[in-house]
Amino acid sequence: MTLSSVNTAAARTLTEMNTAEARKQPHLTIARSETHDTLRNCVRRSLNDYFNQLDGEAVSELYPMVLAEMEIPLLEKVLEYTRGNQTKAAELLG
To answer: Is the dihedral of CA 64, 67, 72, 75 positive or negative?
Structure first.
């Protein structure tokens, strides 16, 4: 899978999620914090920090590492948002 196809699939997913508003479902991709920052920008900033701390060291398997790092907080927050309702959490996660 190429980065372009991943980005295209992600864009399709975001578009599908954005139509959730019409179905009265949560609209997580547009959610912003007090700093008016997007999830994408938070990830971008974290990756910038990560690469700055590498200081030239070699790195591999970055994609699965990033997914693994995001999975636990994602599941925690979704379960918190659904008040522990695993069925609602599964629906929210697609």
So the answer is: negative
